[in-house]
Design goal:
Layout (H helix, E strand, L loop, with lengths): L6 H20 L5 H23 L6 H16 L9 E5 L7 E5 L1 H21 L8 H17 L6 H19 L6 H32 L4 H9 L6 H19 L8 H7 L2 H26 L4 H24 L8 H24 L6 H29 L13 H4 L1 H15 L5 H14 L5 H25 L6 H9 L4 H13 L7 H19 L1 H8 L5
């Protein structure tokens, strides 16, 4: 027998139906395969954190191998995403509006991020007795998870959260050398610059949301194209503030001041991580907000990014050129300033995208250059970590005559430096620079191409100067100068230099050897198929 629903019971039934429909409209399906590259490092981070509570001190090394295995599994999870057509966390009212997209752009950046984190883990394995293992691996995995999420983010809320998840563990890693003054100072500078960047970015995002009423990057472009007149100024200010915030994160000049001291104070593997993974995450976010979200304002952000590119590459290369070989940490400082100069090159195709009717090629050029830079720069840091085992001050003069004691290591470093300079046999470096140069010629401002050409010549000087040191005759003279530079005195410096030359090469830890070998192989493979990388990286983004 059916009982008719009347009166208050009918009203309650109708309300319940509406509530059920509302709840149903909020339910979303999750594509676990699509989010696996970001989810796996996050899950392994929790496993490492919990396991650290129960493992005895002599078993802590297992945490490093668990980290490496987790990152390798995350890399394998990219295989099913090669087609680049998966999306998830989409609005139930509009399936085209999604917060997570695994397109070709995302897959390449995630490959770079996960590969960079894996190599960082390998670089760290030989020196873990100096750091709390559980904290170190947890922070590294957490930062890698955020960096893997960032290129897949398609709304500003997810983008900002991913950027902060990448950054916050990173400055904790910078300051993980407890009791070390340089490490604490580096972490403080990194933290303050990060907080300032976050505040500016959030203010800009809030202005953009107020003007457009949406956070999805594709919808923001539509909203900015038809913004109400009374909100036009608010939208433009929001776009500018968001760009400034990302310029801080990317260490683009004049917001680069924190980089050299941070790299010197941080553990070398973390400096390598920041130079590659942190930069890749920041650039992917910059591409998403400029090329997609702020596309209607291309006539504004295009010239701004072009000026930032010119200023960044010039400041970085000129400062790298002025590094004194005999000063403490001069090798790391040169790599730090070099990374700023390389960031300027990465900005060039993004600026060119503002002047192009089809920015796919320009964005593919940036991604391909970032992949090349990641492989060879991580290799250079790996060799620096090896030399630091014998010469903790890591001066450029400590590399004099490296070929005599470690010929394969010297040849690997020479290859990495020539790739960064864009000279044969570093074919991938030459190809990447030509691709970046061609992206601006005939598309963007001609003056930027001239500035880049001048900077490439400047960079040749300090890269070749370092390369020449590797094959120079070993001598105690340079070490004497470094002893004076560090305040140890000329005589003691000379003795230290003589000892450094006389000491035979020690056995290289297997993880460190693997890191150098993997980066060298990656550079050689990329040199063999550079066009393939560019073609895939230019896949579907828009």
């Amino acid at each position: 027998m059916s009982i008719p629903v009347t009166g208050s019971h009918a009203s309650s039934h109708a309300t319940g139906t509406l509530a059920a429909d509302a709840v149903g409209s909020l339910v979303q399906s999750v594509d676990w395969i699509a989010i696996a590259p970001a989810a796996i490092p996050a899950a392994v981070a929790l496993v490492v954190l919990v396991a650290d509570l129960f493992l005895p001190k002599e078993k802590k090394a297992l945490l490093g191998w668990v980290t490496i295995a987790g990152l390798a599994l995350a890399g394998l999870a990219l295989g099913p995403l090669r087609a680049g057509h998966r999306k998830t966390f989409c609005l139930t009212t509009d399936a085209g509006e999604c917060s997570y997209a695994a397109d070709h752009f995302t897959v390449v950046i995630q490959l770079l991020v996960i590969g960079g984190a894996l190599l960082t883990a390998l670089l760290s394995m030989h020196d873990m007795e100096k750091y709390p293992a559980g904290e170190y691996w947890f922070l590294l995995l957490s930062s890698a998870a955020g960096a893997a999420l960032l290129p897949a983010s398609r709304d500003l809320a997810t983008l900002v959260v991913a950027l902060e998840v990448t950054t916050l563990p990173a400055f904790a890693l910078v300051g993980i050398k407890r009791g070390d003054r340089l490490s604490s100072e580096a972490a403080l500078k990194f933290f303050l610059s990060s907080v300032a960047a976050t505040a500016v970015t959030l203010l800009g995002v809030s202005f953009v949301y107020a003007a457009t009423g949406t956070l999805h990057v594709a919808s923001i472009a539509d909203g900015l194209g038809d913004v109400q007149p009374q909100l036009a100024t608010l939208a433009k200010v929001g776009a500018v503030l968001t760009l400034v915030g990302f310029a801080f994160k990317l260490a683009a000049a004049p917001f680069h001041f924190w980089v050299p001291d941070t790299y010197v104070g941080a553990p070398l593997p973390i400096a390598a991580y920041l130079s590659v993974v942190g930069k890749a995450a920041g650039f992917s976010g910059l591409i998403l907000i400029t090329v997609i979200a702020f596309e209607p304002y291309a006539d504004v952000w295009g010239p701004v990014v072009a000026v930032l590119a010119a200023l960044t590459m010039t400041v970085g290369n000129v400062a790298a050129l002025r590094q004194r070989a005999g000063f403490a940490h001069s090798a790391v400082r040169l790599l730090a300033w070099s990374s700023i100069g390389q960031a300027g090159y990465l900005l060039v195709p993004i600026a060119a995208a503002a002047y192009s009717d089809d920015p796919q090629h320009q964005i593919g050029t940036t991604v391909a250059y970032a992949l090349m830079y990641a492989a060879v720069n991580l290799g250079a840091f790996a060799v620096a970590a090896l030399v630091a085992r014998r010469a903790p001050a890591n001066r450029l003069t400590d590399y004099r005559g490296l070929y005599a004691s470690r010929p394969l290591t010297a040849l690997a470093l020479a290859f990495f430096l020539l790739c960064l300079a864009g000279l044969p046999p570093g074919v991938i470096g030459l190809f990447a620079k030509v691709a970046v140069f061609s992206s601006i010629v005939g598309t963007g401002p001609a003056w930027l191409a001239v500035v880049m050409a001048v900077n490439v010549v400047i960079a040749l000087v300090y890269y070749l100067r370092w390369t020449a040191l590797l094959f120079a005759k070993p001598a105690a003279g340079p070490a004497a100068d470094t002893g004076a530079a560090e305040g140890t005195g000329t005589v003691s410096g000379a003795v230290a230099g003589a000892v450094a030359v006389a000491v035979p090469a020690t056995r290289t830890p297997a993880p460190l050897t693997a890191a150098i070998a993997l980066t060298a192989v990656a550079g050689i493979v990329l040199s063999g198929v550079p066009q393939l990388v560019l073609r895939y990286a230019s896949g579907a983004l828009l």
